[in-house]
Amino acid sequence: MSLSYSQLRRYRTCPRQYEFSHIKKIPWGISEGESFGASVHNALKRWGELEIGHRALGVGRRKQKNEGVREDQIRLFVEEEHPKPQELTAEKLMEIWHQTFVFDTYPSRFEADFARSRGEALMRRFFTWWSLRLRSGQAAPLVLAVEKGFSIEIDGVHITGRLDRVEQTAEGVRIIDYKTTPPCTQAEADADLQISLYALAAAQLFDKPCTELLLLFLSDEGVVERATARSASQLKDARTQITLIRERMEAKDFHPTPSVTACKRCPYRGVCDVAAV
Ligand code: SF4
Q1: How far, CA to CA in Å, does 234 sit from each of 11, 205, 207, 240?
Q2: How far apart are CA 20 and CA 203, in angstroms?
Q3: What is d(CA 203, CA 201) in angstroms, rounded to the nearest whole number?
Q4: Whether residue 19 has its Cβ less than 6 Å from ligand 1
Q5: Ligand 1 atom closest to residue 272's alpha carbon, by position in its atom list
Q6: For residue 212, which of 78, 145, 174, 233 is within the disulfide window of CB 3.0 to 4.6 Å?
């Protein structure tokens, strides 16, 4: 069995929603919130790639000094592996935002412009957060990867997903997951199955321990961090949860679990006879 994390999340939200989308394959339109979140992720992916590009150029320059590598050779290396290095400024991030923002999914120009302005504010907040980390007196975070794809196998279930941003720390790696939803509580972050799967994926992808998992909420109220970690027993519990979900899916358990929270965001609320809205 193969599942993306979004399929898994849909099943956990409501098994009937999963059945509608992935078994009966009833098409659903992307919501404005999903579209906005995708635009933000794309902008921050490009930003992370620029950071990696800067680092590659820095490494190249050091090589040039020590090993006689020519500037044109460095540029060739950087441009092949990463985007062309550019200044990491607030203006550059805003330019990226305007390039990556997707208009099509909004019902009117007015709503699209509103979302684009909201994104500008979020990008400014992200840039302030990012700049403060550089000035915090600690070593600048070293970005190892952005949008790093993974596939992990748990009890016969292949789960695929992406890590938004991976940074090197003194002791291992830090995984950062961007969110455009309202911040969750610390207790919710500590129990989040998605984060446990990221910890399992990081252990498989990197030869360093995953020392920190950071949920970074980019909300209208500001940037909110929820740092968490996973113990061996929590990872074991995550594996058990996946096994239980697999057993229920194989038994075709698609009983709906309506709730106001789930149903108001569900793309099938118009066709579902037990919708709670
Ligand atoms: S409307 Fe509610 S109960 Fe029906 S599929 Fe969607 S989430 Fe489930």
Answers
A1: 21, 19, 20, 10
A2: 34
A3: 5
A4: no
A5: 4
A6: 174
DSSP 273: T
Mean of pLDDT over the chain: 87
Task: Provide, rounded to the nearest whole percent, the portion of the chain with pLDDT above 70.
Answer: 87
CB 229 within 8 A of CB 211: yes
CA of 9 to the centre of ligand 1 (A): 13
In a mutational test of the pocket of ligand 1, which residue from 12, 271, 274 has the highest number of ligand atoms less than 8 Å from its CB? Answer: 274
Q: Which fold has domain 2-264?
A: Lambda Exonuclease; Chain A (3.90.320)
- Choose among 176, 157, 126: nearest CA to 248: 157
Q: Compute, in angstroms, the gap from residue 127 CA to the centroid of ligand 1.
A: 38
Contact yes or no for 146/59 (Cβ under 8 A): no
Ligand 1 mean position, distance from CA 119 (Å): 29
Is the shortest distance between the CB of 268 and ligand 1 below 6 Å?
Answer: yes
Token digits for 112?
A: 């699209």
Give the global pTM.
Answer: 0.84
Q: How confident is the model at residue 100 (pLDDT cuts 50, 70, 90)?
A: very high
